[in-house]
Give the backbone structure.
Amino acid sequence: MTASALPSSDIRPVVDTMIARGLESRASDIHVEPLVNSYEVRFRIDGLLQAIDSLSADAGIAMVNRLMVMARLLTYRRDIPQEGRIALPRPKSIDLRLSVMPTLHGLRAVIRMPAELQGPHRLLDLNLSAESHQFLMQFCAADSGMLVIIGPAGSGKTTTIYALLGHLAASRHGESIISLEDPIERCIGGVTQIEVNPFGELNYATAMKSILRQDPQILAVGEIRDGATASLAVQAALTGHRLLCTMHAGSPMGAVRRLLEMGIQRYQLTNSIFGFFNQRLVRRKSSDGYRGRIPVSNFLRMDAKVSCAILAGTATDAETEAIAPQTSEGTLWQAGVELVRKGITDKAELERVLGRPE
């Protein structure tokens, strides 16, 4: 019997089966979405949403209610967004994140699947180019400076951060490593992980002020979103700490401009930042379509030429011209073309993720 034919009281095994199917298919997210007179279940697999099942309106409502009960949310509040966690005891203890949002046609639920089951855990398993891998290893071996990992949502930034933290924890014994995360998606041995709430009392800026008095040597900041966090991160890097952080930006120069707009001075940027690492994810070709994803990346190292260009002032075009040759594989498109040449992905997938080259 399908979910659409089930009475609401029998929805529990349907929810369990849906979550099990999501785990088996390595979905990163499960969507339970209200339509005009029905619900639809979709899985995000390799970055794209795929329709999995169609449900009656009653079954969809029952499914969302069941998820809210599992996450200990307020089922009688259907007028506000809510977030919670669902603990699964089997096959091993894992946590799912549930987000519920009221919409025109009813409550919409999205389950974020556990990160530890999704991407690779080690730097070597990221399948980066040799140049990109060497750049990250050089940062790991450095004594100070800030590495900014950039890209849009869903580009693998968090996976790269976790791989770097795991490598640092394994290779830099005796050093204090602390991460501020929203939320914590993967437990890493040897790292003190702290969950922050960007809109609560323990936000990134508040946490960083206290953490800097906790004797950290390596600090990871989930995301730089505002001037206060950016300023604290830069000051920490200037005083000899090593930092990893992410930013939503389309290019290294885009990240530079965002930091300048947040009030960071040019001399602070050039003296605090080790470099920018820019990445996207494209699907791998397989015999029956696509399976799995691989990063397309390039980077910008803060060397003398780049520093001089940034310090030059408002000459944005001159900065871009000076900085462009310093990236590893050139543009992201050029890095992607190399993956196409090797038969790892194809041009259609490259255009889907990066757009057509100008």
Observations:
- The first strand starts at residue 29 and ends at 34.
- The chain has twelve helices and 13 strands.
